[in-house]
Amino acid sequence: MLSIRSVTGTFTPRMANYMNINRGDRFDYMVSMSTPARGLAAYREANTPKGDPKWTEKYIDGDLNTSLIKTAAGLTITLKHDTSNPQPYSRINMVGGTKGVFADYPPRIYVDGQAGGEEWGTLDSYKKDYESPLWAKEGAMASTSGGHGGMDFIMIYRLLQCMHEGLPPDMDVYDGAAWSSPTPLSKTSLAQGSAPVKFPDFTRGLWNKRNGCSI
After folding, report:
1. Which of 8, 27, 87, 96 has an alpha carbon 20 to 30 Å from 15's alpha carbon atom?
2. Which pTM value belongs to this model?
3. Domains of the chain
4. pLDDT by residue (tens digit) across 114-127?
5. Cβ of 190: how many Cβ atoms within 10 Å?
6. 193/186 Cα distance (integer angstroms)
């Protein structure tokens, strides 16, 4: 079992679930910084005819925004947002802890002291003990019926399952608020010279009393 200390990647519910956000831990504060805004202007210069209305636009958002988030438990998250510059597809998903590191995409893992030395290993040997029962049951159908390797299908399936069986949802309005808040908070931090900005506690103190995912 990894003792998670940091996450870097696209900000998704997966990351928050890794770190038990709103269910034992919460986002405490963040700092944000951006590079200059050059990518869109360079693309316009190379691809937009003179006289096009796009030449009246002034690009002010930095090409790459990097934010650091600190949780109440002392964990750290590196959050990067880049939609302007050319780059190969990557989910930039990495979780590191005291005993190893997991990275995706593609999925791979390294555990301290593992056989084979300091090389990435596959997840095959861990699936028997750690694979989600829901994925074990519905994964084959999900892989052929939904995007992103079946993730889209399984998330919708699970939401409908919770509604049909009267179960508490694995994500709720408090999660949605927490996951969305880095956008306005990063803007505030940038305006204040990358100063730390506190996260609101949308759960009103209940973040360390709520249960985790039930599957």
Report:
1. 87
2. 0.85
3. 4-130+169-198 (3.30.360.10)
4. 887 788 988 888 88
5. 19
6. 11
